[in-house]
Amino acid sequence: MTVQPGDQQQAGGAERDRVLAAMADPTRRQLLDMLAADGPATASTLAAGLPISRQAIVKHLAILAGAGLVTSSKHGRDVRFVVETERLAQTAHWMAGLAAEWDARLAMIKQIAEAQR
Amino acid sequence: MSQDWIEREIIIEASRERVWSVLTDAHHIARWFGDSAEIDLRPGGHASFGWKDDGTYLAVVERVDEPNVLSYRWARGVDEKPAEGTSTLVEFTLTEVPLGTLLRVVETGFASLHGTEAAQERAANENTEGWTQELAELKEYAERQAA
Predict the structure, then answer these.
(1) Do residues A2 and A39 make contact, with C-beta atoms less than 8 angstroms apart?
(2) How many residue pairs from chains A and B have C-beta atoms closer than 8 A?
């Protein structure tokens, strides 16, 4: 048993919750994809490639930033957004741990069920 | 339920009835899920799963369709009451296959937490596709980003 359910509540849990919630939206996933593929971009540049308003994109970027999935920096009058991979990798790692935990439980169920046929 | 988070399955060489009893009998549960277990096997029934070095997690049974489907809502924190936004939903599905029983577990609800801007936005926006990102996809994404 490597992952206890309590791990969900331990340090990092709140950050992870924000990552999961941020990633739950298809537009935000698309924004991350665009930033990853094309490099740093402004909200206006991103808006040019999507059928939604710049304002809506700014809102989505704020949620992504709140989850630590993007960061922004000022370049003259422009605010450029960049993908941050660490949070995402941590969350994926955590989910992989939970999945492995289920694998272990299912294997145990199999063992018990087959032993008592 | 193909739209949510963790989904795992295993083929068990035993009847569905057999697998069902391992899934639902507190005695058996305590062997594969924590160290102690109690379960009132009916919709709305309470369940608890205890880990010696961690604590007790409470759950509420949602669906009991013997020997096909069992689901319960499982609190994320020790001694917490399971509620939407503070719990995940675990659903087991048992299917007869030539070798015996295909047991699938799907755990959902990781993304629908209270208090986050995104969750509120989702609740307000009924046509949301929900959480379609599966683990493999997320993992692949993370790896692609890290590359």
Answers:
(1) no
(2) 142
Non-local (6+) Cβ contacts of B41 within 8 A are B24, B61, B64
Measured distance CA(B59)–CA(B51) in Å, rounded: 14
Name the band, by pLDDT with cuts 50, 70 and 90, for residue B23. Answer: very high
pTM: 0.69
Q: Which two tokens stand for residue B138?
A: 């997320």
Distance between CA atoms of residues A95 and B86, nearest Å? 17
Distance of CA A116 to the CA centre of its chain: 42
Model confidence over B27-57: pLDDT tens digits?
999 999 889 999 999 999 999 999 998 899 9
By C-alpha distance, the chain B residue nearest A32 is B145
Which of B70, B140, B65 is CA-nearest to residue B106? B70
What are the backbone dihedrals phi and psi of residue A74, each rounded to the nearest 5 degrees, phi first?
A: -90, 130
Inter-chain touch A23–B51, beta carbons under 8 Å = no
